[in-house]
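Second opinion, please. Pick holes in both lines of this record:
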Amino acid sequence: MSDLIIEKLLEKRDSYLTILKHLSFELMMDLTDIEIKEIKEVEKNTLDQLKIIQQEIAQILSQNQS
């Protein structure tokens, strides 16, 4: 069961990494200050979600080792 949960978390992680890649690309465009601010906010929220996913994966893996 935990393998399935980890697989879903890894898929979610990959989605967030893709979002970050696209956000980085968007920041290379000619944007207004407001657009840059919005992208930076989405980027921050995405990184926060990635940290949560990493913690969940680590917790599951540590429980499996016990």
In short: The mean pLDDT is 95. The chain has one domain: 2-65.
